[in-house]
Amino acid sequence: NKCEQVDFDENNREQVVGTNDKIEVENASQIWALCNEGKSVMLKRSGNGQCLESFDYLCGPSTGITPGFDRVSKYVFGGISFDCPNSGLCDVDGFPCLREDVGHYIVIYKDSQGMSVAMKNMIEVIRNLPKQKAVAGRIMQHRIEDLRRHPHVEDVIPDERYYLDMGPPTKISGERRLEESISWGVEMVQAEYLQNQTTATTTPMKICIIDSGYDMNHPDLADAQGTDFTDGSSWKEDTLRHGSHVAGIISAKQNNEGMVGIYGPHTPNLHIVRVMTDRNVFYASDLIWAVNTCVSVGAKVISMSLQARTSQSLEESVMDDAYNNDGILLVAAAGNGGNTIFENYMFPASYSSVISVAAVDSAKNQASFSQHNDQVDLAAPGVDINSTVPGGYELKSGTSQAAPHVAGIAALVWALHPGCTNQQVRNALIETAEDLG
Length: 437
Fold this sequence. Notes:
The protein has 437 residues and is an alpha/beta fold. The chain is 21% helix and 30% strand. The protein is built from nine helices and 27 strands. The protein has a seven-stranded parallel beta sheet with strand order 17-19-16-21-23-24-25, with helices on both faces. A six-stranded antiparallel beta sheet has the order 2-1-4-5-6-7, with no helix packed on it. The longest helix is centred in the last third of the chain and has 18 residues, at 399-416. GO terms for molecular function: metal ion binding; serine-type endopeptidase activity. Its EC number is 3.4.21.62.
């Protein structure tokens, strides 16, 4: 690959000098190499004069590097080394000057050597999943098949993209309410009947909510424990206003203000796992990590109001393992596409080990936005559901709102019958539900 040398100058990023197979390196801390097809890459030097395996890709025309170009990503290369003296020529033979398509993948390895091979071939290691003998990260497309053929690698699979099941636009935003109300959804699922049977000696089952966070400062939300997202985003914050709404359906306090959740006067045992940053996007590897976290903290019920359009073998095995071996009840939103928009099933709801929950309105009519395929197990309230959000209350609609109704009721039932298995609780919910046809 032919690269044009670019002397790095903060005040003049358009200075292009020469063309060579090698990039001349002085003692500068960083230089730019402009490659054909308008792609460019920056090499950085460490304090001891060695080339770092760190590059910044930029998009732009071949006339040079100018401020304001979209920065695609910062990648850290593994397995690529450059023999760079303090000055002289830095051999870039074999360096991927052309920016190739880079995807999110999970490498499943057979042993520690396979893990090392996987990490060396990744541009950026995003997540290590030792329980599954897997590591997730960004990989250049041309390396996928070589990795799959490696004797110490089991498989390489796409790391599917996820997003929150946000539902239709929120209809109203509510300020703090001085009078307390009971949602029609709480009444429809007959939560009060279970509340009345629950006593101070009843040990609550731990519910793990995998979502966008939780507003710990909300006066109507019960105390909880939680786990931050791995980038440091706090579980005690909820900029997307989704996780707090989901959690409030279960845990909103009976305290003479605002609204009352499934647990009414009782305090649930909640663990919140934040699974994303402030953007509504994450990956299957993040969800696998979150389920692993829920298992490790002793959760009995996992609530997931999130969705992807594609199944994934490793993710499915994680759900199956949590259900069959760890005895956890998994509940997920069926999806908001409606069968006329998305013909395919939504996941994780459509895995056999997960209870898939569709949405109905206050008249028990199927919500127009709700998935209603043959993988749906139950329907629950999901239209105009009032619940907590940072700073107040909102009416939201979606299967996101339906799923926590089922998760909350399941946990209450299980706490009253702690000798039951997760399969027995699941069967009880399905067998006692009203058949809506």
